[in-house]
Amino acid sequence: MHVVLVEPEIPPNTGNIARTCAATNSCLHLVEPLGFSVSDRYLRRAGIDYWEFVPVRIHPDWHAVVEWLGNPDKWYYFTSHSSRFYTEARYDPDSVLVFGKESTGLPGDLLEKYPQSTYVIPMNRHVRSLNLSNAVAIVVYEAMRQQSFMPMELS
């Protein structure tokens, strides 16, 4: 599975997401510009000792991640501006899960280009959004649940 973060801004969120990717054998893709340095101590601290278990790819822009992963029409885009719940999507081991930056979410042009592929995590209308690392964990684990948690290496 692939987790794509478009222009992430907060190092501890990305570090926590890296830990989730390590726990689920998922690949993490970071689309620049990043709001931090990948050597940032807060990023490393949040990931603790798991960085060696996370394939991380840094892409200079959206076009580069599309070139690397292929057909973006089949990807899943997560936003608070969708009417379909993330549980309605049907994930497979090669799913590409796309999340936007903490302050503004995914760019409007992506949401307009792929409206049939947008999903929301339902929440109380008084809450604008969830923390990015929490949102990623919710979706990744739903995708893993749909695959009977395979391929996971359980201890």
From TrEMBL:
Residues 1-141 form the tRNA/rRNA methyltransferase SpoU type domain. GO terms for cellular component: cytoplasm. GO terms for molecular function: identical protein binding; RNA binding; tRNA (5-carboxymethylaminomethyluridine(34)-2'-O)-methyltransferase activity; tRNA (cytidine(34)-2'-O)-methyltransferase activity. Its EC number is 2.1.1.207. Keywords: Cytoplasm, Methyltransferase, S-adenosyl-L-methionine, Transferase, tRNA processing. InterPro entries: Alpha/beta_knot_MTases (IPR029028), SpoU_MeTrfase (IPR001537), TrmL (IPR016914), tRNA_m1G_MTases_N (IPR029026). S-adenosyl-L-methionine binds at residues 100, 121, 129. The keyword S-adenosyl-L-methionine applies. Its main location: cytoplasm. CDD domains: SpoU-like_TrmL. Signal peptide: none annotated. It catalyses: 5-carboxymethylaminomethyluridine(34) in tRNA(Leu) + S-adenosyl-L-methionine = 5-carboxymethylaminomethyl-2'-O-methyluridine(34) in tRNA(Leu) + S-adenosyl-L-homocysteine + H(+); cytidine(34) in tRNA + S-adenosyl-L-methionine = 2'-O-methylcytidine(34) in tRNA + S-adenosyl-L-homocysteine + H(+). GO terms for biological process: wobble position ribose methylation. Could methylate the ribose at the nucleotide 34 wobble position in tRNA. Belongs to the class IV-like SAM-binding methyltransferase superfamily. RNA methyltransferase TrmH family. TrmL subfamily. This is Putative tRNA (cytidine(34)-2'-O)-methyltransferase. It comes from Sulfobacillus benefaciens.
